[in-house]
Amino acid sequence: MENPNRILKVLVYSDDQAVRATIRTALGRRPAEYISDVDIFECATEPAVIAAVDSKPFDLIVLDGEAVPAGGMGVARQLKDEIFNCPPVLLIVAREADQWLATWSGAEAIISHPIDPRAVVKAAIELLAARTSVTR
Questions:
Q1: What pTM does this model have?
Q2: Contact, 4 vs 34, CB < 8 A?
Q3: Which of 86, 14, 110, 93 shows the shortest CA–CA distance to 77?
């Protein structure tokens, strides 16, 4: 089992600062007692996401499907196709009806706008726990 005190790295991508702030606030520093502290790295552009993922290890990637000009679905698909052992992706889509399309992206979890902080935390905890072998 991994060191439970290790800081978990989360990348959050959206061109909308309010979306990034909502995700950051929802996750906080420690979203659950059995999850280590979370360090959030924010990106506002697709090139910044690619550069960050190429240069730093992340435990979770949160992508806004509504980001422009590069939406999170396409970014997720690119990461899943190009990054060996890509971290799990939480994708935020505009409507629940978009979830069928979001599965094409390879995202392991999908939530819908408007962002429900509890849904963010629940999905992130499940993905982080699976990634780090942390159990309750």
A1: 0.89
A2: yes
A3: 86
**Residue entry with tokens 């990634």:** 131
The tokens describing 71, both together, are 């939406």
Question: What confidence tens digit (pLDDT) does each residue in 71-93 have?
Answer: 999 999 999 999 999 999 999 99
pLDDT tier, 135 (very low <50, low <70, confident <90, very high otherwise): very low
Question: What domains can be seen in the chain, in order of their start residue?
Answer: 8-132 (3.40.50.2300)
Dihedral-angle region of residue 28 (phi above 0 means left; psi in -120 to 50 means alpha; beta otherwise): left
Place of tokens 């909502």: 22
What is the residue-wise DSSP string for 43-102?
Answer: ESSHHHHHHHHHHS--SEEEEETT-SSS-HHHHHHHHHHHSTTPPPEEEEESSGGGHHHH
Q: Which long-range contacts (CB under 8 A, 24 or more apart) does 24-31 make?
A: 25/117, 26/115, 26/117, 26/118, 26/120, 26/121, 27/120, 27/121, 27/124, 31/121, 31/124, 31/125, 31/128
* Phi (first) and psi of residue 42, to 5 degrees: -100, 140
Distance CA 53, CA 43 (A): 11
